[in-house]
Design a protein that fits this description.
By secondary structure, the chain is an alpha/beta fold. It is about 40% helix and about 15% strand. The chain has a single domain, classed as Alpha/Beta hydrolase fold, catalytic domain (Rossmann fold). It has an eight-stranded mixed sheet with strand order 1-2-4-3-5-6-7-8, with helices on both faces.
């Protein structure tokens, strides 16, 4: 059953985010609107680094980490940063992981495939520094699509795969063909559907929107590690998740799809307000630890 807090958050987001996003006159105005951060969890420590030649930060918790998470932030490929997503990265850190969050290059200054190139560069370094079975890749919204694209690029280079993938409301189809873009347009309290198309066009800069490294929904998903997908039933990007799960299973992969009721896009950032955010992150941490344990078992 949805929490009472989940009923409060929608009118707030609709008024303060979705309405303003619809009225934003430029990508810069939308970037400023979405570029705010929520508080990090107490006990997390943030250490700047420069993996791959661009800024990022390590996030550590109070206990020795069980594994490393490469976390790719969302923001439509044009906004947000490691800083704006500290609520999520600190949550993973305080649940027993070392997290690296890179500030990959953003559109419109840096268009496709810049984000994929950056994320893959970091992935190569993390693989070289440790064991791939002790690495997890995760992301939300555009960062979720980027996490998948990174693994498709890594697979093309015959790089080893991580232990699992964790995706929060991933944006996997920049062709914007999901029916939920229309059917959930009124129910969605945060994202404004026409801005999704604009963000895709700004990032793609003329590239084919069905190119797998931009839209991994259209890629060869065979051989990817176990995948956890969390999405809300009222998101305009719902079909990006449901079709991803279907395509992954059709390719012989393992996809756990959890559709949560009555929640906003990437509700995991709202741990202060939403008990579902804390539960979702608990679930994600348990999924990761289960995948790590299965990798540790003797063949």
């Amino acid at each position: 059953m949805p929490s009472w807090q989940s009923y409060i958050v929608h009118p707030f987001l609709r008024f303060y985010v979705k309405r303003r996003l619809a009225r934003a006159a430029s990508a810069g105005a939308a970037r400023a609107l979405l570029g705010h951060s929520l508080p990090a969890l107490p006990g997390a420590v943030f250490t700047p680094d420069n993996l791959g030649g661009f800024p990022g930060e390590w996030v550590s918790g109070p206990t020795p980490p069980e594994a490393t998470i490469l976390y790719l932030h969302g923001g439509g490929y044009f906004t947000c940063s490691a800083l704006t997503h500290r609520a999520i990265t600190s949550a993973f850190a305080t649940r027993g992981f070392s997290v690296y969050a890179p500030d990959y290059r953003l559109a419109p200054e840096h268009v496709f495939p810049a984000a994929v190139d950056d994320a893959l560069a970091v992935y190569r370094i993390l693989i070289a520094q440790g064991r791939p079975e002790q690495l997890i890749i995760a992301g939300d919204s555009a960062g979720g699509g980027l996490a998948l694209a990174t693994l498709l690029a890594a697979k093309a280079e015959n790089l080893p795969m991580p232990s699992c993938i964790i995706l929060f409301s991933p944006w996997t189809d920049l062709a914007c063909t999901g029916a939920s873009l229309v059917t959930n347009a009124a129910r969605e309290s945060m994202l404004y559907a026409p801005r999704i198309n604009e963000a895709a066009e700004n990032y793609l800069a003329g590239a084919d929107p069905r190119t797998p490294l931009a839209s991994p929904l259209y890629g060869d998903l065979a051989g990817l590690p176990p995948m956890l997908i969390q999405v809300s039933d009222r998101e305009i990007l719902l079909d990006d998740s449901t079709r991803l799960a279907t395509n992954t299973r059709a390719a012989g992969g393992e996809a756990t799809l959890n559709i949560w009721p009555n929640l906003p896009h990437v509700w995991q950032v709202s741990q202060i307000l939403l008990p579902e955010a804390r539960k979702a992150l608990d679930e994600a941490a348990m999924f990761a630890k289960s995948a790590l344990a299965s990798k540790a078992l003797p063949a």
